[in-house]
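Researcher: I need the complex structure. Ligand is zinc ion. Inputs:
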Amino acid sequence: MPELPEVETVRRGLQPALEGARFEHVLARRRDLRWPLPKDFVRRLEGTTVEGLGRRAKYLLADLSSGEVLLMHLGMSGSFRVFQDGGTDMPGRFHHERTEHLTHDHVVFEMSSGAIVTFNDPRRFGFMKLVSRTKLDHEPLLRHLGPEPLGNEFDATLLAAACRGKKTSLKAALSDQRVVAGLGNIYVCEALHRARLSPKRQASTIASRAGGATDRAERLVEAVRAVLGDAIEAGGSSLRDHKRTDGELGDFQHSFRVYDREGQPCVTPGCGGTVRRIVQTARSTFFCPVCQK
Ligand SMILES: [Zn+2]
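Model: Output:
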């Protein structure tokens, strides 16, 4: 499943094709994605211009000149392809069951920029939704999301306040979208290792008694930002298929410190520990019991 860094990489890849461009033709080949495409989808898009392409957690948000926002989610296996100037680009460089088979090209945008943007999704867990910009704050999919992990709002004070009194594990707290938005299993494991904090630690222990930030909360925020920043730089991870579009090996999976490294030596200098796998809330957690306390 694409995680936040991949979605951000996709956003950056789509930006030149979409931003400032008008939808000239929209093809809705298959309407039954995770949810049916919105009523009058084609008519509401054609003729409008994309004023900006943003991201909230794992949602892409295209701000339209019509006053609506096109909300897009990749689901489990969704991807975009951009045809432009005789070439094809697949932003994100990841291959989660990506298929080039045209039967899975469900939505096609022909843009005034000359770009043709295709949404392909074999498993159809992805979706598109049109929301009035004025109602975006009340949108059920976005309303309960916590702060963006790469935004200015997310800091040690906020994280500590969110964890105050929480009896759940730190792993569960960080995976809670209300605490911080868009962090999935991989990056939670990686951030905890970088911060040298055990995933089993009770979440409340990163807050002071009064609910203020501790050194642990500071370390954790720094680690979350670093882990996501590195992944975006590397173009997202690519777990299922390590090959990039150019056939080279992807970069980021080589720099996972704990994720999917059960039984291998911990990479923390001088640690000497071995990466362990445990199951927490039905998901695998990878961590080093020696340097993560
Ligand atoms: Zn270690």
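Model: Summary of the prediction. The CA atoms of residues 37 and 232 lie 29 Å apart.
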